[in-house]
Amino acid sequence: MPLVSGKEILQAAKKGGYAVGAFNVNNMEIIQAIVEAAEEERSPVLLQASQGAIKYAGLDYIVALVRVAAGKVSVPVALNLDHGTSFDQAMKCLRGGFTAVMLDGSHYPFDENVALVKKVVAVAHAVGVSVEGELGRIGGTEDDISVDAKDAYMTLPEEAKKFADLTEVDALAVAIGTAHGVYHGEPKLDFERLSAIRKIVDCALVLHGASGVPDEAIKRAVKIGVQKINIDTEIRQAFTNGIKKVMAEKPNEFDPRKLLGPSKEAMKEVVKSKMRLFGSSQKA
Hints:
With 284 residues, the chain is of the alpha/beta class. It has helices at residues 6-16, 28-41, 51-57, 59-71, 87-96, 110-126, 157-167, 191-200, 215-224, 233-249, 256-278, and strands at residues 20-24, 45-50, 77-84, 100-103, 130-135, 139-142, 145-147, 171-174, 179-180, 204-207, 228-231. The chain has a single domain (6-278), classed as TIM Barrel (Alpha-Beta Barrel), CATH 3.20.20.70. The chain contains eleven helices and eleven strands. It has an eight-stranded parallel barrel with strand order 1-2-3-4-5-8-10-11, surrounded by nine helices. Strand 10 (204-207), helix 9 and strand 11 (228-231) form a beta-alpha-beta unit. The radius of gyration is 18 Å and the shape is globular.
């Protein structure tokens, strides 16, 4: 089916009491794995491309691949810009065919963050594209963006409400203790903070850096009211582990199809397990 807006998917998740996975994509096999998993699980899904992915694969290639993949399935699929850092980049994605954009102005002072996101919202909403903002800084590294632990800070509930009201975003990424990349030790999520934000903020809430967060913590976050959960690292790990396994068993193998095929299947299993965990399976 044609791509749908991120808002359509997240509004249904909020109403239904589940979360939808937003899985980062970089190439054809990753896109195929995610979309095939969504169809088999009957789950809505968001595919998202970061600045690094767009630089690596090219915006036109990503859009074309996602459109073809979405056209082969009967479940809702949206394409989201992940951690966009400028108005110009967001506009390029809008023109290219993205159906959701995330503008990360969390490194700016509050007022500048609001102004930048409002500017994107005004254009995106006019063409039916949803917008995600971020308030509070999520630690770790994701492609071109790196936040030291000392620079990460938690989202304040009252600021979250003010930000959502002023910008009219469709989704808000909040900092409650997660981090991008591989965790060194078990992450401790601030569920009281999340509950306080959920009580006063109407838009969808987003959990970034969810790869490696214990299942019980994810379930609790979804129950409190998170609608979008970002997964990247665990997909990368499944991809590379699949290739390593083939190379260990067949060190002379040189056919890319025989290397990447098992990796795709490994990624599918990760994605399907997340969809079941988030509660989006059988919701399409």
